[in-house]
Amino acid sequence: MIVSAGNGAAAFKLVWATLVNILGTAATASLMRKAARQGAVAYPELEGLVVKRDALDYSYQVPPIWKTTERPPALVHLVRRELFPLLKSLTGDVVVHRLYRVPELTASGYLPSTEVEHA
Amino acid sequence: MPDTVKLERISTGTPALDAVLSGGFPRCSMIVITGEPGAGKTVLALQAVFHAARAGKRCAYFTTLSEPSLKFLRFLQLFRFFDQELFDERIRVHDLGSALRAGDTEAAFRQLTEQVEQWEPELVVIDSFKAIHDLIRAPYKGRTFVYDISVHMAGWGTTTLLVGEYTEEERHRLPEFAVADGIVRLAISRQELASIRELEVHKLRGSSFVSGIHYFDIGADGFRFYPRVRVPDEVMRLQSASTAQVGFGIPGLDELVSGGVLADSSTLVFGSSGTGKTTLALSFLLEGVRRGEPVVMLTLEETLGQLRHNAASVGLDLEAASTKGLLHLSFTPPVELSTDRYLHETRELVARVGAKRLVLDSLTSLGLGVISERRYKELVYALAKSMRALGITLLLTMETAESFGSAQVTGHGLSYSADNLLYLRFVEMDGQLERAISFLKARGLALNSGVHRMTISREGVKVEGDQRFRKARGLLTGLPMQAPLP
User: Which residues of chain B are at the A interface, by a Cβ-Cβ cutoff of 8 Å?
Assistant: First the structure.
């Protein structure tokens, strides 16, 4: 059964948790901030994605619209066009493959459908 | 140790290191891999993980607050042992740093044990465990933490590698070293201007291991290990020596030892510069080639081009022997030579080509790379015994400093390592410099210990009885006198 990632906030939480599991919060936060800043040129909505260091940990806030929208275009852009190339350039295919193992993300179209597409 | 309990092993991915550990890390054990930053701890652990994964074992790699996964995953891909396909299928990387950064070691413990229980890996690496320890303030908590991990991992059938950049003082104080079943220390030491990577096994509970310092390099293939050169165990088990004889193929020389030296013996050829040691050694090898034997020449002095040219000038055709595939020549400059590595590679080379004869030219150059005279003697002794175990006839050359009027025939303290001693020197005879040759020792053989004349010409090397040599006295001083008439 194909499971939806839910609204944008839930999908982002899945991406965040998957990356934290392998890279840790510090690296995940850093990559998200960079991806969001680059993506904000095309999708100003991404300026609403706030990732900050809180005491010794990291926390984030997603744009409010993601909580009510399924598959928000800005999030799709963030993951497919900004985060993927960043992960590929820094870690090869290891982390990217970990994301592909999350069925909710692949089913909801957040990830490029083929290796060629994200290459 | 009685063989009542057989310890299964997890390979390190490096056969030579497995041999030092009597087969690898004992299964279900907890091993601390310690060393300064950059010593190679992570590479060693990763190589073991990929090796285990290739063998179908599940492995988990937990990063903490040392080398970030982001960087670690990137650099890892530079090694040839890296295989993307193994990730997630056989190897899972987890970050414990997120829990640890808030100081919550209990949360890290929970994550660790949950992952192990879910995934049931056979090999687990925690890198760096020291980072966890640094967050545990109370000593009793540290010991409990380590103890619980040890028990939990063993209970789930997991072999655990705790990687950490511990200091010498911490190795004596911290509980992981007491609780661990094994301790492997990596270091980088200075040898004059060169840096050398070292590995030492300090402890391996329930298992024998080869003590002392071993050497390794890290390259694109990962961890390349060179065990400390020592007398191989097989030598201890050798019950009998060979009685077959091996000729030099030099007219007049083999007759001095009833047809040749023993097949598994070692011969030290020593003399001053220019006396013909290398030429004699090459003749010995070409005689092997003539008999269809694979032979190896290791030179630390002349480049291969020089060697071929010089050999051709005295009628020795190395090119033809190489073309036949029987003569294997190797030149290594003695500068910055790592002797243990060199001798380890020599053993691999002779085993690979199935060599029957080996020449090392010369011990003098080899000695330049050895840190102490004692170690130098140990190396030569171990080399001689290793070749004996392989059934190879070994010929070593050594240059001696000598002057006319004095004779030094002790072999510089190395003569005890060799079965046979062959001494070359110049003597002044009728106003001409002549070459003299004499067997000083030939273990297990009837020996003609007379001093004989040796000639080198375009026809090669010859040893002959010479009336003048027979009549002279004091030949080994270089300045002989005619014996008084009877």
Answer: 63, 68-70, 73-74, 77, 84, 87-88, 93-95, 97-98, 101-103
| Cβ contact, residue pair A90, B101, below 8 Å | no
Please report how the helices B69-76 and A25-39 are oriented relative to each other, as an axis angle in degrees rounded to 10: 90
Nearest Cα residue to B158 out of B63, B74, B57: B57
Question: Are the beta carbons of A91 and B103 separated by less than 8 Å?
Answer: no
Q: Where are chain A's structural domains?
A: 9-110
Q: Which of A20, A90, A101 shows the shortest C-beta gap to B88?
A: A101
What six digits make up the tokens of B471? Answer: 């009549």
Quote the CA–CA distance of B340 and B338 in Å, as a whole number: 6
Cα torsion B28, B42, B78, A25: sign:
positive
Per residue in B378-420, pLDDT (tens digit) is 888 888 888 988 899 999 999 987 655 454 555 455 667 789 9
Q: Return the biggest CA–CA distance within chain B.
A: 101
CB contact set of B104 (below 8 Å; sequence gap of 6+): none
User: What is the distance between the alpha carbons of residues B341 and B347, in angstroms, rounded to a whole number?
Assistant: 10
How far apart CA B425 and CA B271 sit, in angstroms, is 5
The mean pLDDT of A100-117, rounded to a whole number, is 81
B61 alpha carbon, distance to own chain's centre = 31
b/e B139-148 (16+ beta carbons within 10 angstroms → b): eeebbebbee
The verdict on a CB contact (< 8 Å) between A22 and B95 is yes
Inter-chain residue contact A20 with B103, CB threshold 8 Å: no
Place of tokens 């088990």: B237
Its pTM stands at: 0.75
Instruction: Indicate yes or no: CB of A95 within 8 angstroms of CB of B95.
Output: no
B77 contacts on A by Cβ (under 8 Å): 91-92, 94
Quote the minimal CA–CA distance from B76 to chain A in Å: 9
Q: B182: helix, coil or strand?
A: strand
Average pLDDT on B340-366 reads 91
Domains in chain B, CATH or no CATH each: 9-226 (3.40.50.300), 234-482 (3.40.50.300)
- Cα–Cα dist B30/B40, whole Å: 19
User: A96, A80, A12: which is closest to A49 by C-alpha?
Assistant: A12
Q: Using an 8 Å Cβ cutoff, are B301 and B363 in contact? A: no
